[in-house]
């Protein structure tokens, strides 16, 4: 019986580590959610702002008081869009949804000054904005249309064709790209959320089922 319990914990830890791109420790207090397709923790106690900040920092997130969200830039490894989606979900977060110019500036300022000793305007980061495969409209992971959120595209973008996902580039504007392109990414989470609410958007194009 004891052996079975140890094996179960080991498999849970392994599943978590395979999902996360950055070095993350398996946390027994997290539970896997089929709806969220990720590992989540329910904080039952009312949380003051300073403790919420500590919670964000524990996961290496940065709290921004102006937007009320916590952010984390994953820049150690470039991944395809669905991998970025899964990593954010594993941290109880989602790919960042940029609502306005102020939030775009926050994300822009979080991007490191240079990679490999050089600065490239086209350094891109996956975000939670994609093109609906049926209506070909740009919508966020929460189902908001592009007209209702930040929509400052880089000049000449989106340039049509096959790109189906948006990125934010170094100068703080948007670019379109394929979901198979390798990029760094930014996750966003709430510092005070008590439960996970399923995404309202009908995202079915490249959904992944995690086998745990």
Automatic annotation (TrEMBL):
InterPro entries: C-type_lectin-like (IPR001304), C-type_lectin-like/link_sf (IPR016186), C-type_lectin/snaclec_domain (IPR050111), CTDL_fold (IPR016187)
Record-given protein name: C-type lectin domain-containing protein
Pfam families the UniProt entry points to: Lectin_C
Domain of life: Eukaryota
Keyword Signal: yes
Keywords: Signal
Domain C-type lectin: 66-188
PROSITE patterns: C_TYPE_LECTIN_2
Signal peptide limits: 1-23
CDD domains according to UniProt: CLECT
Organism: Heliothis virescens (Tobacco budworm moth)
């Amino acid at each position: 019986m004891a052996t079975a319990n140890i094996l179960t914990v080991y498999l849970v830890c392994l599943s978590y580590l395979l999902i996360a791109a950055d070095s993350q420790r398996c946390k027994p207090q997290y539970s896997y959610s089929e709806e969220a397709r990720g590992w989540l923790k329910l904080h039952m106690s009312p949380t003051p702002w300073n403790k919420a900040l500590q919670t964000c920092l524990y996961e290496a997130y940065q709290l921004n008081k102006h937007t009320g969200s916590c952010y984390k830039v994953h820049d150690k490894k470039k991944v395809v869009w669905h991998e970025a989606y899964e990593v954010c979900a594993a941290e109880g977060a989602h790919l960042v949804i940029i609502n306005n110019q102020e939030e775009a500036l926050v994300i822009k300022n979080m991007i490191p000054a240079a990679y490999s000793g050089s600065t490239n305007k086209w350094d891109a980061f996956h975000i939670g904005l994609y093109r609906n495969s049926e209506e070909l409209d740009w919508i966020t992971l929460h189902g908001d249309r592009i007209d209702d959120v930040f929509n400052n595209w880089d000049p000449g973008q989106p340039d049509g064709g096959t790109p189906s996902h948006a990125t934010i580039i170094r100068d703080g504007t948007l670019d379109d790209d394929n979901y198979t392109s390798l990029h760094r990414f930014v996750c966003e989470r709430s510092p005070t959320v008590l439960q996970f609410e399923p995404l309202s958007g009908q995202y079915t194009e490249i959904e992944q089922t995690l086998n745990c």
